[in-house]
Description:
By secondary structure, the protein is of the alpha/beta class.
Amino acid sequence: xxxxxxxxxxxxxxxxxxxxxxxxxxxxxxxxxxxxxxxxxxxxxxxxxxxxxxxxxxxxxxxxxxxxxxxxxxxxxxxxxxxxxxxxxxxxxxxxxxxxxxxxxxxxxxxxxxxxxxxxxxxxxxxxxxxxxxxxxxxxxxxxxxxxxxxxxxxxxxxxxxxxxxxxxxxxxxxxxxxxxx
Length: 182
Ligand SMILES: Cc1cc2nc3c(=O)[nH]c(=O)nc-3n(C[C@H](O)[C@H](O)[C@H](O)COP(=O)(O)O)c2cc1C
């Protein structure tokens, strides 16, 4: 059975990015995927401290915080959904540490890495224009390429600002279709 994990990067429980990520998961479940959800808000997750000690203790990172759990759940997954609200035209601070702490997976001594996994970006923004996501999309695609992660076309829901806005229009149906396309 294939496995999909959603990393929820919003501080808002039941917010727009979570609502759409859940819709992607529903579609994937219809295709036989098993799902896992990690709510990053509230987890003890620090940024990379550039100690250059990746894998020195056998694990990806020597920092003892919640990232060990995130790493091991990502290791088990075939597909990773990165769900984030657009904050100042980039990642939320809840999800950014996950990217910073991917450094072990470009290390020459990596015991395992992220190559061949599939990634989906699910992002929401209050801005009406889709080019508001340009910086985020560049970060996502370029980082995936460097890590050897295959990425789908990003799912970018614009013009959604208040909680519940993602339920309006066709966003949910499109997100479910995306999940079903896996
Ligand atoms: C701190 C903060 C920064 C934000 N920055 C942007 C931004 O740069 N561009 C934008 O269009 N919306 C911005 N927004 C609006 C959110 O992206 C929008 O409300 C989104 O739907 C929230 O998703 P969520 O419900 O999953 O948290 C910002 C909101 C907050 C709280």
